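User: Here's a protein and a ligand (zinc ion). What would the complex look like?
Assistant: Let me lay out the input and then the predicted complex.
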Amino acid sequence: MKIYNTMSRQKEEFVPIREGKVGIYVCGPTVYDYIHIGNARPMIVFDTLRRYLTYKGYEVNYVSNFTDVDDKIIRRANEEGVDASVISERFIAEVKKDMAAMNVQEATVHPKATEEIPDMIQMIETLVEKGYAYEVNGTVYFRTRQFKEYGKLSHKNLDDLRSGNRALKVTGEEEKEDGLDFVLWKPKKEGEPFWDSPWGAGRPGWHLECSCMSKKYIGDIIDIHAGGEDLIFPHHENEIAQSEAANGTEFARYWMHNAFLKINNEKMSKSLGNFFTVREISEKYPLQVIRFFMLNAHYRSPLNFSDELVEAAKNGLERILTAYERVQEAEEKAADKEISAKESEWMERTDELVKRYEAAMDDDLNTADAISVIFELVKLLNTTLDESSSKAYCGKLKTVLRQLCEILGMEVTREKELLNEDIERLIEERQQARKQKDFQRADDIRNRLLEQGIALEDTREGVKWKKI
Ligand code: AMP
Ligand code: ZN
């Protein structure tokens, strides 16, 4: 398999460090709110990478963190007057629900920053001992000048960045030796969670957690490090500096970065009002459709989210599911007879399609091409199946179609019927939307329920629902 490595800016043949095994580290979300649909892109893309490597026979150790101590979490906790852990635990649970609905498998380990503090302190101590870090007034900084290869991943011109040195120093950081130096440990502030350390009470810098967790759960060298492209600089550059300086060895072999998801060709932002959470989108579309929509593009291409494009993905997925239903029924009815000469030819064509699918996935996870191969299989199925088809031929098509979909994390059977508790939840969310005068969202929820054959009736005693 070839993987585009951000480090070399080339596609490279994937060779694992340990034969038959792959360690993947994906930077996870900061859990201060529901995840938005942009956050869903790396989750879906790298879950697909994991599924494909597993299909190829690798044992995959997939590690993805939850950043559960951060300014935004602390701010929200203070607003609600609760402990930061109440906020992070609440949203970890919500993120896990969204992941499950998108068919994103749980990681082998989902470490949390707050549970790894002793390891982080230890790594800082190593960096201080080796001359890669220094302390000023309770803050410990990484000394970037000491790490000669700083900038190798982002290919940035550091002299240019340094000439803007002053601009890089934010208030309170005048004490830094260099504008590019970054925080490893910061002293405690009033109303913030803190831990004791050799440099006084405080909390770790964000970049450090990934260096420590990947070391602990995968090893000093990891095979694939992944995340969104905004993380290349400074986050991943800083992770490399910390890990390579502390461990004295290469940090990650392959760096994979997904391009951004935009909405109606604009950057997603709260102020533009084009910011959607996965949860909101789930009221409009089954998340299976969103997964399929995302995989219709190559992960390194920017992707535009619009109702039109999602509708197109929904129709495409519908064609695949209908074909699967058809082959399932055909298999049940088919006679247990010898395969015909024609069928044996079509079975060879099916094998060729599998090879082309694999070639697409081997080419830097080209899911867009892999999906077009699935459509070719659907076409073959639609044009060759009839009452005279043998059970063996139907069975072959069915198994192959299911497998090619499942590698992408697509379930071939139609969405399961909504459970009563799902219906109650959607009704509750619709009531909330109406209270907030968000009638569009309320309508979306009503329509989504209607699609599932659930009609709502507003009565004096509240909202009633019935199956139609
Ligand atoms: P954050 O919680 O901001 O650290 O983001 C979690 C992950 O989502 C990171 O890998 C980000 O790069 C990724 N991400 C954030 N916004 C987008 C977007 N609009 N499109 C694609 N990926 C994104
Ligand atoms: Zn990270």
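Summary: The chain has three domains: 2-258, 307-407, 420-467.
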